[in-house]
Amino acid sequence: DIQMTQSPSSLSASVGDRVTITCRANQRINSYLNWYQQKPGKAPKLLIHTASSLQSGVPPRFSGSGSGTDFTLTISSLQPEDFATYYCQQSYSTPYTFGQGSKLEIK
Amino acid sequence: QVQLQESGPGLVKPSQTLSLTCTVSGVSISSGGYYWTWVRQHPGKDLAWIGNIYYTGTTFSNPSLDSRLTISVDTSKNQFSLKLSSVTAADTAVYYCARGGATAGKLDYWGQGTLVTVSS
Fold first, then answer.
1. What is the CA radius of gyration of chain A?
2. B101 reaches A (C-beta below 8 A)
3. By three-state DSSP, how is residue A56 classified?
4. Residue B103: is its pLDDT beyond 80?
5. Buried-most residue among A36, A95, B41, B74 (CB within 10 A)?
6. pLDDT number for residue B101
């Protein structure tokens, strides 16, 4: 299985801050990397697919980059509704594994 | 609008079989182009991909569950299902169904999730 490692596991930030979350795969996955946002008690929501493509309806303050093994999710200016847990997922080969999550909390 | 809804027992006894169904609306499973997927999340933990199925019946399963797992599709009812046999407490989780892209594998629509507890 491909192992996905996110950092940091948790972070605190303020409204208006720029935040970056990193995801690393233990083998090359080209651009088959997706990002999800999950709020407590809710299903994950797709934000970014194929590393850098913004899912329809997602605000442009979210962006993704990277290819190969190293990827980043950036939120350019945090809004109150962005405090949640973020997961990366590789869809290069089954089983499509997820990272352990990065919990974004209000400072 | 695409919607998915999980259904099934919320409590299963150890050693029995966990059975869940996902009912899809707003798109026909038999139209192709998507892999219909199961994901679970242990309480307070991260997400785990269980497996998926194409409308033709082709499946991909997580090897860690493969010996206990059956995923099936009923295109006439626009549903797909999961059966996990010989369950233990370690199978207690929220189970989600989702629609997966056939090429990029993104999970773009999800059900609300259903908590299944394994306990006697």
1. 13
2. yes
3. coil
4. no
5. A36
6. 87
Q: Which residue, B35, B47, B44, is CA-closest to B107?
A: B35
Q: Burial of B90 by CB count in 10 Å (0-12 exposed, 13-18 middle, 19+ buried)?
A: exposed
**Is any Cβ of chain A less than 8 angstroms from the Cβ of B106?**
yes
Tokens of residue B41, six digits: 């999340």
Q: Which of B64, B105, B108 is facing A32, going by the closest CB pair?
A: B105
- List, in order, residues 6 or more apart from A31 with CB less than 8 Å away: A50, A51, A52, A66, A67
How far is the C-alpha of B72 from the C-alpha of B43, rounded, in Å? 26
**Could you report the per-residue pLDDT of B30-71, keeping only the tens digit for each?**
999 999 999 999 998 889 999 999 999 999 999 999 899 999
Distance CA B32, CA B40 (A): 24
Minimum CA–CA partner of B61 in chain A: A95
Residue type, B108: D
Q: What's the mean pLDDT when you consider all of chain B? A: 96
Q: Decide if B10 touches A, using CB distance below 8 A.
A: no
